[in-house]
Automatic annotation (TrEMBL):
<dbReference type="Pfam" id="PF00583">
    <property type="entry name" value="Acetyltransf_1"/>
</dbReference>
<keyword id="KW-0808">Transferase</keyword>
<dbReference type="InterPro" id="IPR000182">
    <property type="entry name" value="GNAT_dom"/>
</dbReference>
<feature type="domain" description="N-acetyltransferase">
    <location>
        <begin position="1"/>
        <end position="140"/>
    </location>
</feature>
<dbReference type="GO" id="GO:0016747">
    <property type="term" value="F:acyltransferase activity, transferring groups other than amino-acyl groups"/>
</dbReference>
<protein>
    <submittedName>
        <fullName>Acetyltransferase (GNAT) family protein</fullName>
    </submittedName>
</protein>
<dbReference type="InterPro" id="IPR016181">
    <property type="entry name" value="Acyl_CoA_acyltransferase"/>
</dbReference>
Amino acid sequence: MDYECAQSTKEEQEYLDNRLGDYNAEQVPTTQQPLVVPLNYCLKDNGKIIAGINADMYMWNLLYIAILFVEKDYRHQQLGSFLINKVESEAKALGAKLAHTDTFDFQAKEFYLKHGFDIFGILDDCPEGHKRYFLKKKLKD
């Protein structure tokens, strides 16, 4: 093989991401503009971040929740529920019909199940001795 293999820069990573997005859009027409709508929020207590959610609504009006985190001392105060409800509500207003995420057995599986998500896949031994759950939720109007 006569090709150079090098660690990708951020720009190169973005280029590859865009190329895959272009290919995907050729296969299945997109249903939203812009192609990615960030839905990212954090909650602060006296300027300190105590909870947050990073999510995107992408290409086909799909909501992907990448990160939902609440600091230990602030858990069980409905902060996670507030954040997920806010993001789902905004995504629905923009036309989203489906949300998806993933979590580990030591993270928030029960939280997502309580919020109407269903497990559609499990990856065993990820990490060893644990499970990674893939979840989805139909977003109703």
